[in-house]
Please model this.
Amino acid sequence: MTQHTELERELDRRLTEIESSEIDDPVHAALSGRSIVVFAAVALGIAAASWIVAAL
Model:
């Protein structure tokens, strides 16, 4: 049982360390509203173009 709790503590420590290093990493930052709108617009544009080409 002691080994199990030691493992849990070590895993929690490592997870905390990883999370704290990823907070400052811009790759893991949340997308802004503008980025989401641009992504959705591009995806819809590609889908619309594909639909138009398929209809021809």
User: Anything to note?
Assistant: The chain has two helices and no strands. Residues 2-55 form one domain. The mean pLDDT is 86.
